[in-house]
Write a structure and sequence with these properties.
Blueprint (H helix, E strand, L loop, with lengths): L1 H29 L4 H38 L7 H28 L4 H29 L2
Amino acid sequence: MKQLVLMAHLVLIAMGTGMSFSNLVNMRLSRTQSGDVAKGLQLQRRAIARIGDGVIAFIWLSGIALVFITLAQGGSVASPAFTAKLGFVLLLTACHGLARATARRLAAGPDPALFARLEMLIGGVWLSALAAIVLAVAAFGI
C-alpha cells in the first residue's frame, strides 16, 4: 500500500512541476504578445492554475497518507529529508496561493510590477516542486 501511495504522491508532485514550468513558459511568452494571443495565454494560465489547485490538494492528501502509513508500519518520518521536503511543499503552497492572488489583481488591468511578481512566484512554485520531488524520494525511499 505504501508503494502505491508513494507512486501517486510522486506523480502528483511531478504533475505540479510540469504544470508550473508550463505556466512559467506561458508567462515569458505573454510578455511579447498582445490582443487575442495575450488573452488566450491568460486563459491557459487560469486553466493551469485551477488544475493546480486540485493537484496541490492531492499532494497534501497523499503526503499525509504517506506519513500515517509509514508511522503505522513502525517507521519514522523524522529525517532531515522529510523536514526539508515539508518545507518545500509549504513554500510551493504559499507561492501558488500568492500567485493566484497576484493573478486576480493583474486581471483588473496590466501592471508590469504585478506581472514580474507573478512570474517570480510561478518560478517559486516550479523550483519548490522540483526540490520536493527529489526530497520525497529521499524521505520515503523507493
